[in-house]
Amino acid sequence: GAKWTYDGPQGQDHWSERYPYCGGALQSPIDFKSDLLRFDPTLRPIEVQNYNLSPNEQLTLGNNGHSVQLSLSPMMSISSLHNQYTAAQLHFHWGSASRPAGSEHTVNNKQYAAELHVVHYNSDKYPNISTAVDKSDGLAVLGVLVEVGMFNPAFEHILKFINGIKYRDQKVKVPGFNIRALLPTRLDEYYRYDGSLTTPPCYPSVLWTVFRNPITISRKQFLSLATALYSSNAQDSAPMPLNNNYRKTQPVDSRLILVSFKE
Ligand SMILES: NS(=O)(=O)c1c(F)c(F)c(S(=O)(=O)CCO)c(N[C@H]2CCc3ccccc32)c1F
Ligand SMILES: [Zn+2]
């Protein structure tokens, strides 16, 4: 679609001029403010299926100008929600080399270095993500906060190919790996709320599950992610670095933020 950016004249403060939902209700991301959280004992641990992909599986890793995204196997799904949600893609949001703060969701206004999103669609009701993307029960996204710390071997399965997709619309084939290793150990502790895509067209179609516990990547891994990519294409005379690709937190309004954990 038409080009939008995170900053400047096509930046996030102008998205609603072309994409009306971006100025509407139920927008994401949000800040998880302690006194807005409500413990919900009915929230079950997240269960994922077939996340451990064989290296014989070929996935497409691409630079779409907004993020680095990895296509996922349609065998992958979330099985613990009321409907089955089938995986479509995963992508990241991050800060910059000079400011390792680029998560979209924040916790008491603490912004993490980056955030991973694993996008799924309601495959009980819709044949594919394109038909699901604008439906109120269409998508379920798993959010993982990322902080700088220990080296992350799973993240390396993506990072080692990143120099093949430096520019917009570049794609490479990469072998499958255990996507479960990109999620935190505990899938029973998470924030849950009704929200939206965090990019245009900002459809309010996402059941958000953001895990309480972050994963870590090393400083070197973070710097690679934050400095390798451009949002411009290879032939552009003025290369535009791709970083700070996060939306600011949005008004919670009267939404409930549920948590599956007590303290
Ligand atoms: N933060 S987020 O999880 O809300 C989110 C993104 F941040 C993001 F960048 C993308 S995108 O496809 O890479 C580019 C804009 O759609 C999607 N893409 C999703 C939404 C639309 C769509 C259609 C087909 C495949 C994937 C997606 C997304 F769901
Ligand atoms: Zn995202």
Defining key terms:
263 residues; mainly beta; 13-stranded mixed β-sheet; three-stranded mixed β-sheet; 4 helices; 10% helix; 29% strand; binds ligand 5EF; binds zinc ion
Give an overview in words.
The chain is mainly beta and 263 residues long. Helix content is 10%, strand content 29%. The strands form two sheets. Strands 2, 3, 4, 5, 6, 7, 10, 11, 12, 13, 14, 15 and 16 form a 13-stranded mixed β-sheet that branches. A hairpin with a 2-residue loop joins strand 8 and strand 9. The model has no long low-confidence stretch (mean pLDDT 97). It binds ligand 5EF and zinc ion (ZN).
Task: Briefly summarize what is shown.
By secondary structure, the chain is mainly beta.
Structural class: mainly beta
Could you say which small molecules are bound to this protein?
the ligand NS(=O)(=O)c1c(F)c(F)c(S(=O)(=O)CCO)c(N[C@H]2CCc3ccccc32)c1F, zinc ion
Q: Based on DSSP secondary structure assignment, what is the total number of beta strands?
A: 16
Give a short account of the largest sheet.
Answer: 13 strands, mixed
Mean pLDDT equals 97
Radius of gyration: 17 Å
Q: What general form does the structure show?
A: globular
Share of β-strand residues: 25-35%
Helical element count?
Answer: 4
Low-confidence stretches: none
Order of helices and strands: HEEEEEEEEEEHEHEEEEHE
Q: Roughly how much helix do the residues carry, as a percent range? A: under 10%
- Measure the end-to-end span: 43 Å
